[in-house]
Amino acid sequence: MTQGIELLALDGIPEVSPGDDLAALICAAAAAQGIGLTDDDVVVVTQKIVSKAEGRVVDLATVDPSAFARQVGERWGKDPRQIELVLRESTDLVRMGPGGLIISRTRHGFVCANAGVDLSNVGGADSATLLPVDPDTSALELRDGVRRISGAAPAVILSDSFGRPWRNGIVDVALGAAGLEVLIDLRGQPDADGREMHSTVIAVADELASAADLAAGKTSHCPVVVIRGYRYAPGAGRAAALVMDAERDLFR
Amino acid sequence: MTQGIELLALDGIPEVSPGDDLAALICAAAAAQGIGLTDDDVVVVTQKIVSKAEGRVVDLATVDPSAFARQVGERWGKDPRQIELVLRESTDLVRMGPGGLIISRTRHGFVCANAGVDLSNVGGADSATLLPVDPDTSALELRDGVRRISGAAPAVILSDSFGRPWRNGIVDVALGAAGLEVLIDLRGQPDADGREMHSTVIAVADELASAADLAAGKTSHCPVVVIRGYRYAPGAGRAAALVMDAERDLFR
After folding, report:
1. Are B215 and B225 in contact (CB under 8 A)?
2. Which pLDDT score, from 0 to 100, does residue B218 have?
3. Predicted TM-score (pTM) above 0.90
4. Do A10 and A35 contact (CB within 8 A), yes or no?
5. Which chain B residues are closer than 8 Å to A204 by Cβ?
6. Structural element, H or E, at residue A25
7. Is residue B96 part of a domain?
8. Same domain, B215 and B152
9. Considering the domain boundaries, does residue B249 fall inside one?
10. pLDDT (tens digit, 9 = 90+) per residue, B204-227?
């Protein structure tokens, strides 16, 4: 039987709080499940626990919404303090839609709903988690942490759920990456017909994030998934490279 | 150790020609690899071999390009007959970009590059494959075929590679589906914080397609991947449900 790719959810990750050592939590959960991490694995971690560990949590009581945020909040029955945070995290508003949905470009260049600002309840207080300041660096640090503890240096991907224009539903994509090439460029290589593949650059980091989400489930909270048996291309890829340059982007 | 999800590429699928019984080819390849298909599997099949089996192949010599297609072809050094086919397969042009790239809406409602028209070489003649007329029906027929031959009725997904606005690289998405719900609606269910998840509808069919692409590789041509161990929601889902309604679509 073929050697396939395995998607293994780690279930022992506790609720994460600011300052927690996420690498240690991941290594402990993997060990408890008998999963000895190796250099060949890809560890996919959901953004939210990274944001929490990094203290990217804002107590909503401390947020003073602008007049515009109040206006949008009142119109749609949304918390104006959340709107305010979304605006602060954005460099560009791309669309505003019914329900107070804001699609914007974040400082990282990602275009997503609500700039990744997620309402949360941390220690009984209404708060919001923000995206990590630099998700690629977060991934790199996580990878270094895992290496220090376990000796193994798997590739690491930070994932988040994004909507897409024209298609219903969200899918997980890569927000940060370390240790692997995020794009696989097959241009110039022959396809099955011997014809050159002109436009085949595959966003493997996004596909890895989506695959991991299948194993993670959404309500059973497994925020970390180990992908085993996928032969990734080792490299210093950064998820920032997934952001399309303005001059190539037909949708700016 | 956790029971994970497995992604198993089938490698015995031969070059497919119009009229071939794809279900039989898939069952034979699975059997040869010792993979006994079950109702619990998801079989992901790349669109191109489905199009070929269904005879959605056009000999470019038979295509008479319009004046517009000639103009676009001349401007960008592209075959005007391919441009002509792209226009014929489109209901709406969404963007035209450098290199003669056309992003359009297909009759199915999908927004993608070149309306899914793919240059190909079938039997030595320059030809193009078009998307299946009704990919959901193609998936359903494939599922019925597999059931007739093997007795098992796995879920079936037809996949294709789509680009995305704002992000580099392509990822595989679901073009057709049979036997499973393509969207998992978690709205109203509590998340880890006990907070209602307001906007969580997951496009699992797209995530399954992306996951399969990791196992398929691109140059090693494994056009069929079996996903094992993913507990899909059985149902009469159709990939057509992944197309966003015009009134909800902020990007029309």
Report:
1. yes
2. 58
3. yes
4. yes
5. 169, 214
6. helix A22-32
7. yes
8. yes
9. no
10. 999 999 999 999 975 566 999 999
